Write the C-alpha cells for this entry.
Amino acid sequence: MPEPTVLFTEEEIQRRVRELGAAITADYRGRPPVLVSILKGGAIFLADLFRAIDLPVRVDFMSITSYGGGARPSGVVRILKDLDQDVGGEDVLVVEDIIDTGLTLSYLLTALRARGPASLEVCTLLDKSARRIPPLDIRYRGFECPDRFVVGYGLDHAERYRNLPMILSVGSQAELDEDSSSLARFLGR
Ligand code: IMP
Ligand code: MG
C-alpha cells in the first residue's frame, strides 16, 4: 500500500466548515433549514457544521444501506432508519461526508423529493466528482476530493478511522483491505 498522506488537516477542515456555515447562514436567513444527515459518516461533519450555522436550524438523521453492499454501489438503498419528522413544506439541506459515484445520494434525493419539501439542497464535505455517475446539483461543497480512498473525519474503512480529526488518503480500498499496517504505523497504533 502507498504511504498514507494527509489530504486535509484538522485546521483546513475546521476553517472550511466555518466558511460553509457562514454561507448557509446567509442563504437561509428567515427560513432555517432542517439538516438531514446520513449516518454514520455524515454525523461527524454535521456536528461541526451545525454549530457553524447561526440560525435556529433543526437536525434529523437517516440510516441507509446499499444493496449489494460497500465496494460496488448499486444505487438502490434500503432505509434502515427514517427521519423522525415530516419534511413536507420544509427547507431541507442534506449533509453528506462524501459523494463518490453519487448513486446513493441520487436515490435518497428522489425519496426525499417525493415528500414535498419546500426546497432540497445538498452540502457535502468532499466531492469525488471524477467518479460521478448521475448528474447531481451540489449547492455546497467543502473540497474537491481526488479519486483515491480516504479515511478520517467520519469516513471509515471497515468502521475504523472515523474519529481521526484529519482526512488521510490511503491509496485504494482494496489495498487497505489487503494490508492496513502502513496506516497503523502512520498513526502510531
Ligand atoms: P456513492 O453512492 O458512490 O456516492 O457512495 C457514497 C458512500 O460511499 C459514502 O457515503 C461513503 O460511505 C462511501 N465512500 C465513498 N468513497 C469513500 C472513501 O474514499 N472513503 C470512505 N468511504 C467512502
Ligand atoms: Mg462507509
User: Anything to note?
Assistant: The radius of gyration is 16 Å.
